[in-house]
Sequence to fold (196 residues):
Amino acid sequence: MKIWNFSIFLLVLTGCNSPKPAKTVSIETVDEIKKEDAEEYTAKEQQVGTYVLPNEVVVLSFKTNKKKQVFLCRDKDNKYLVYRFGNKAKVELQFPEKLDESSFRKFEYSSYFRGGGVEDLAMNLDYLSFTNSGYRYVIFKTYASEDEGNEDAVGIRVIHLKTKKETIITGDFNTFEGGFPEEVMEKVSQSESLYD
Fold:
């Protein structure tokens, strides 16, 4: 009986119809595989961590059509607000550099809402802007019923303050998460500026 059980074990171990012998893996190799998985996981965590620190929550986020990442985060205790933009490998722009209570006043929020349908030209416009190194950055989320397809739009307008030249970085609306929560927007400067 023991010989029969051992034969079945060998048959299962080597594969019934497998022409190749079963591959053996040493304990050292298993440990190396686990280490590689852990390093990969840590690298992913660090990558996400550069956009969202452990003491932060995401206010809003989206990806641009050119696969850049946009994050607006706040400290869990509402000590600061921060914008981060970049590619998967690194943050290319963080605003502001100093993360403290004064950061809220470095942003301006403006919005406009008109209800109704297409016949009333309904719209919902939200803008959060800041000025950095001679440019105004405007994070926007908009809806206008007269637009073709009545689609929501998200992105960033970058306006050169001297030349007034404007570049629009179009966002992928399907990746948009979060919004413009009142408890955060009431802490930033209020503005009447509309950018559409």
